[in-house]
Amino acid sequence: MCATCGCGQPAAQTHERGHAHDPSHDHSHEHGNGHSHTNGHTAETPSIVKPSAQPIAARSMIEIEQAILAGNDHIAANNRSFLDRRHTRGFNIISSPGAGKTTLLEKTLTALRARSVGCAVVEGDQATDLDAQRIARTGVPVFQIETGRACHLDAQQVHQALVAIAIPERGLLFIENVGNLICPTEFNLGEHERITIVSVAEGHDKPAKYPLAFRNATAIVISKIDLLPHVDFNIVEARRLMAGLNPKAPIFELSATTGVGMDAWLSWLQHMLPVEV
Amino acid sequence: MHEISIACSLVKAAVDEAARHGVSHVLRVDVVLGALSGVEMDALLFCFPAVAKGTVCEGAGLSVEIEPARGHCAACGSTHDVHDFMDPCPDCGAWPLGLEGGRDMRLRALEV
Hints:
The structure holds two protein chains of two kinds. By secondary structure, chain A is α/β, with parallel strands linked by helices. Chain A has nine helices and nine strands. Mean pLDDT of chain A is about 85; it is low at about 1-45. By secondary structure, chain B is α+β, with helices and mostly antiparallel strands. Chain B is elongated and about 55 Å long.
């Protein structure tokens, strides 16, 4: 059992997982090779086998059929139980860099404080605690995860954050993921809701280019709408793509800077608070 | 490049299974990737040997089977294999399709 929070997870596994990313540091140059990624047609290749040099004699198969990310999913389930025991709702916030996640959070936290909603924040960035400093100025407990070269948060990192800061009872926990519309979508952190943000300063074709981020969201935010007169962003087309990928997710159009659209967003968040029984 | 993290999780799962079966060397790791899983097969193939180094999976082959999603077209009623969220119906061109499956990432088997 984890000695820190008693979540039932073996502590040894915790540390093994935490360091599992270290080998990645030898291979960061692989980003230069990233253009094979754009070749969607690899999906049509049924199978590639790199033959082993071993002799053919006495081979046998062990059938497994296990989710590759089962280890992460297990920790994520513990994170979620941890939040459930506190009747607190967790939000995983995903966007590309510069979509306005931190600004929206600052304004959201200040407004929720006025509505007497308890909050905490986990900040994920590759480097610096600049975002955590901004959040700390709102008076909300915040924990900064610096992922180094990793491009996403995983459940183990969030677990460490959950036991390090004061998580409110019957409140909201916001996890600001690393700015990236690709990698974070694959890793469950134990959140209840997943928010994908796209700013109007980006293209309205973002949903078509990064479909998984929109497909998996439980709510979508179109941010910086005060900039609409100055940018070529077709909000009707963006909404068509979003609704096609994810018909169930509500879409909030807002500007954290001017406050337009913030009321609907804040009301939705408050509606997500677990009901007192 | 989250494929490195996926490769680390894959190798850890394979090493754990190998230990559970008392196996000291793995010849091939069989994986199923959903076509809509968001994992790039080429990147995974590239990372795997480096991540496997120093484990019972060192030198093992990696076999990847792509599992398509099934897409149902509400407009014409047809059903097809789908490899991309943005794929329209090949019969009538309608989009979106009602999608099922194609999201799994599974360690299927080890050849030892």
